[in-house]
What does this fold into?
Amino acid sequence: MPRERTFIMIKPDGVQRGLIGNIIGRFEAKGFKLVALKLTSPSKEHLETHYEDLKSKKFFPGLIEYMLMGPVVAMVWEGMNAVKTGRVMLGATNPADSLPGTIRGDLCIDVGRNICHGSDSVESANKEIALWFNDDELNNYKHHSEAFVYENVLKEEAAPALPAAPAPAAVAAPSAVKEFAPYEGEYEELVTYSDDPSLGKKCPDMSTLVAVPKGHHDEFVGVGNGKPTCLVMFAKYLKYEAFPAVEAVSAYAAELGIDSAGLLLDNKEKDAKRFVEKNPCKCDIPLFFDPGWKVKDAFSAMLNDPVTLPSFYLFDKDGTIVWRQALSGMTGNMKLDKSQFDYQIRAFVAGNPLGSHGPSGISRDDSVAGPVSQEDVFATQEVADAVW
Ligand code: RTP
Ligand code: MG
It folds into this structure.
């Protein structure tokens, strides 16, 4: 029996109209197991991330305004086909089309006040659960009536369908790697071109970095010390682009056994500590911060270009940059397949040649657009005020 989890939310109108008990009661009565629950008032930014796939819709601003009308009840429910069945229980998005017997069919009228949300796929459910809950808020326990709800009871309390953590240090078999197909479209900021200023350069001095212990996976050999390395550079003002990048490198480190670290290009220790305390994403790699932005400045000087964040850097065992993957412009929905980073890191770890997209065809003549000052980006009040 698949133990699926889904994210169900009672929207502000459901809370205000006193429908919390009714909605929770339906999931309980159905037989699903409650794994997490909280009454919470999410920020605008959080809601925009939650509904980011609808960003381009005309109703998006109204949707965010609606979701900010009051607290919501965020929940995780678990059971067989919880995602699909949860959607059926909610009813069609527009209550005018929702059948009687469904939550929306019975309890609301207007699509812009449709009282509840449910994940639309297992993939969205995993993403949404990670966005709304920390791991320690998800309760693992045995449902006492399981044998009366399911014919085939679970044999063991296995972990649910979260992204699997594969065996450490297992290098992917070449057959598991899709062939590298060079990108042929217009200039694309998620694609690294052969004229990227990083490629072939030596890693600048990083001795000024300061470790931020997390209590796990804190050991780092260091770039150029005989092991290939992957670094992810990020900063607090980029949080929703940074979190998936940090998680992706953590997963690569676990799967491929590559030495990895996160470079938090914020110059205050309190920001780095806050990142660890808030535990906003799965960071299973050593973490460093950059006092005085010395490393950021060293990279900018080496590149003669601003450091784009977040970025992955792949270094060979001698500390030469063999690939840089820009991730700027990404949101929670990382498009690593478009970037082909997955191909590159697997080829790199297996000792195979990396793919190439050829040159970008973009002229780097600063006199055309005017010089870009790194300080401008990092020193703005907005960046200084950003918090995890
Ligand atoms: P939800 O994500 O909230 O569970 O809803 P859903 O999957 O059924 O529908 P989705 O397309 O994801 O839309 C999200 C929410 O946006 C509001 N909406 N308004 N005015 C409109 O045409 C319109 N369309 C959608 C609804 O509140 C919908 O639940
Ligand atoms: Mg939806």
